[in-house]
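> forwarded from #structure-qc
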């Protein structure tokens, strides 16, 4: 399934108001991981209350030890401060990187804005080197914008 075909699936999952938001986010993680061959770990991190750290919410893939990430640390912590997408074609070339698994070769993190505020992010790890294109960035921005509509309610 290509990225465009996944968009209505994401929208339909988020429309399931009988499910908790966490459960809906978990379904999105599963659908993305199951349908995009180079998405090997998919998760949402959110700002942890009033602390300057991220906390892992829903995810699909291997459990990670990195459930709390201070702002500024790793790719995720940098995006919490930069408010910009971070595409890493080769994680070995990054100094400020937190390794979750030795199989991971590339990563993309896209911030999630609610009412203009960076409140979290979607994080994808890939076991393929340099797999992400502009299409992934636009797709993940779409996913986050759809999630934001639910969180803004
Ligand atoms: N690699 C991330 C940490 C999160 S794991 O990928 C799940 C980072 O450098 O921030």
């Amino acid at each position: 399934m290509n990225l465009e075909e996944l968009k209505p699936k994401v929208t339909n999952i988020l429309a399931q108001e009988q499910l908790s938001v966490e459960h809906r986010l978990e379904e999105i993680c599963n659908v993305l991981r199951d349908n995009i061959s180079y998405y090997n770990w998919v998760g949402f991190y959110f700002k942890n209350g009033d602390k300057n750290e991220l906390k892992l919410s829903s995810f699909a893939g291997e459990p990670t030890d990195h459930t709390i990430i201070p702002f500024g640390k790793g790719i995720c912590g940098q995006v919490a401060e930069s408010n910009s997408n971070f595409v890493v074609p080769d994680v070995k070339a990054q100094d400020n990187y937190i390794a979750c698994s030795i199989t991971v070769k590339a990563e993309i993190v896209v911030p999630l804005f609610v009412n203009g505020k960076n409140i979290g992010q979607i994080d994808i790890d890939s076991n393929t080197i340099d797999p992400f294109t502009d299409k992934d960035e636009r797709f993940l921005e779409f996913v986050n914008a759809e999630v934001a509509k639910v969180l803004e309610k």
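QC bot note: Strands lie at 41-47, 53-60, 68-70, 86-88, 106-114, 117-126. The domain at 3-152 is CATH 3.30.450.40 (Beta-Lactamase).
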